[in-house]
Amino acid sequence: MGKRPTENSEAARTPVLTDGVVTLRPWNDADIPAAERGHDEEIRRWTDAQSANTLTDAVKRGREEPDPERGVSLVIEHDGIAVGYVEVRRTADDTGELYWVLFAGQRGRGLATRALALLAEFAFEELGFARIEAHVDVENLRSIRLATRAGLRREGLLRKGRRQGEERRDTVVLARLADDPPLRDPGGFREILNAFLPRKRAISQMLIRDDADRVLLCELTYKRDWDLPGGVVEVGESPFLAVSRELQEELGIDVPAGRLLLTDWLPPWGGWDDAVCLVFDGGAHPSSLLDTMVADAKEVRTAEFCTLDEVRARCTDFTARRIESALHSLEGGGPQYTESGRT
């Protein structure tokens, strides 16, 4: 991607990197006016509000002799003018943290993405970093997308990870490793998308009835209301297999899943993010099935077969609606789709 500095000592002290569109180079006096004009409210919103000297500090670091022990700060040049700056600061033996600023009027053209990609290559190949990372305010969607396009993968959320005046803000942690597949490789591109795109929680449940057409419900330890047996699908696990695994773990019974009866979208509720709940047919069994159950005391207090009136009394309204919709699907027709139990 970028051109590595030549092996002479002068180039190593003052790296100049280019991909043919942007150039990263040390600061000079002519950059200061453009930087001062370009430091607008957008930059002040996302940079450290505790320091009124963010630009001054960056210029000072950029004009010092680059020190691999500390990192490097470089101007982003495009068409002969300074359009922003990028930095990598060493935070551990083999880890660096990225910072970047694009001046007013220079955004939206992919210049910062190119600059970060160049700096990442330099950080790995010349400064010896094994990992570079960025901590971006959770609401700064432009910078999150930019970092992702530069090859950083979203790793998680650091709660209250950034100080903004008197307030502490949540930050998204993104990182790239020296041995990650290059972004230009199909596998590397797919891994980036996989880390960036949203993931939705999946829950698999089973509708089990007895010979009196009552529905098996579990009284759970972590909430007051009752629910169908089942649980959260693990990453990479088949929802079809997950529900039988959950019944084995929580109730000690082996019941293979039948056909899918219902897909129910659950909106955010009570501290939970939204989820998709899949209800599978567990068939009809003698009520003596209860006698074979060994409940996991950490999650299940008890299990009972319940009439519809008992379902409505013991479950939340949306759980009761989901069960009624699943029963309706069982009576005829194919699988249904509902949202919070409503068609």
Description of the molecule:
It comes from Hoyosella subflava (strain DSM 45089 / JCM 17490 / NBRC 109087 / DQS3-9A1) (Amycolicicoccus subflavus). Belongs to the Nudix hydrolase family. The protein is an alpha+beta fold and 343 residues long. It has 2 domains: 9-196, 3-Layer(aba) Sandwich (Aminopeptidase); 201-339, Alpha-Beta Complex (Nucleoside Triphosphate Pyrophosphohydrolase). Helix content is 29%, strand content 33%. It has 10 helices and 16 strands. It has helices at 9-13, 31-38, 41-46, 54-63, 111-125, 141-149, 186-196, 239-251, 308-314, 317-331; strands at 17-18, 23-25, 71-78, 81-92, 95-102, 131-137, 153-164, 167-177, 201-210, 215-220, 226-227, 230-232, 260-266, 275-285, 300-306, 336-339. It has an 8-stranded mixed β-sheet with strand order 1-2-3-4-5-6-8-7, with helices on both faces. Strand 13 and strand 14 (275-285) form a beta hairpin. The protein is elongated and about 85 Å long. The model is unreliable at 1-12 (pLDDT under 50).
